[in-house]
């Protein structure tokens, strides 16, 4: 279960007076979730009672959330944190991080991906707009269960554009292996780490060639692994470049 203290904390942050959800948003969004899950919640309309039972919108959000199951609470809080209005908000990001790391076992989505890794990778790609655009497109397809070869194509090209930008060349991914090794060594990385990255890119290239160039059916169960290993590579590569 999600402890009441976390529900309260999440409600305080999500309903923050300065940047949080409005009372109208809280009522509307909670009502929508209540309909989806067939759950009775106490506050579904405006205005809120004036009898002191609900002193503010944060209390209304907390009391509404308390009526849902832990799995439902997880999904609701996660999706509220991901609203566009909270983009770049450090307090909201902290709530989501705690939610994912402490209660990730409550995530009932059929296709679970390491979302904190994805968010971190997007952050690191901020200065690489072309690569970020393709990475975001791949993530959107994953979230919508569009397990097609062009999802992998987007990931591949995103990685390729990133490496081209950092190494300042126009080579294909397959032809970057020696350059990647030299780059890692120049940045103080070990020979073993350099070899590992070369093997990862070599594996990635071969995997992508099989499913992208030859039109073979993509194995859905492997998409998560490919996405996360690509994300880890990109994040670490940018961090090395910033040294």
Describe this structure in words.
By secondary structure, the protein is mostly helical. The protein folds into two domains: 4-106; 115-241. Helices cover 66% and strands 0% of the residues. It is built from eleven helices and no strands. It has helices at residues 4-14, 23-37, 57-65, 70-81, 90-103, 115-124, 129-143, 149-167, 177-186, 191-213, 220-241. It is elongated, with a radius of gyration of 22 Å. The relative contact order is 0.09. The model has no long low-confidence stretch (mean pLDDT 87).
Radius of gyration: 22 Å
Chain-averaged pLDDT:
87
Helix content: 55-70%
Q: Uncertain spans, ≥5 residues at pLDDT below 50?
A: none
Count helical runs: 11
In a few lines, what is going on in this structure?
This protein is mostly helical and 243 residues long. The chain is 66% helix and 0% strand.
